[in-house]
Amino acid sequence: MDKQTLIKLLAYKRWADTATLEAIKRIDPASSAKEHHLMLRLMNHIYVVDRIFRANMAGLPHGYQALNTPETPTAEALITAFRESTDEYIAFITTLSEDEFGKVIRFTFVDGGEGEMRLMDMVNHILFHGTYHRGAVGWLIQSCGGVAPKDVLTVFLRDYQS
To answer: Is the pLDDT of residue 72 over 70?
Structure first.
């Protein structure tokens, strides 16, 4: 996959994460407390994994002890955090040469196990990992009477790509 495609997919990720969190904000936490909390936990998990992988790509410690945080951020806080995180990914990807995507990165999983992945595979992971969990959040939004976003790539490419 070329650099411009990755940047486009990261822009799609930013858009889909934001649309999902905006839909969560429209769910009444008083009438759907358990589901609302679970939606935020799932979205926070995506964010934490994004940050863990970004730190691993940079060869830096990420500071996480688990794949989620003890506290649950608000949807508004997550909108800001996701935007900043994805913008950081885009800036990072922009600086790379095509050859650097094949670089093998060694890291330690939060459970202590050792791992290694090519940089391109790490970027693909953060792109596809979030899609899986946003789908679950979409089902939860609908189960609470809300309208899940149409967060498919074709809609993004047609309506929102700048």
So the answer is: yes
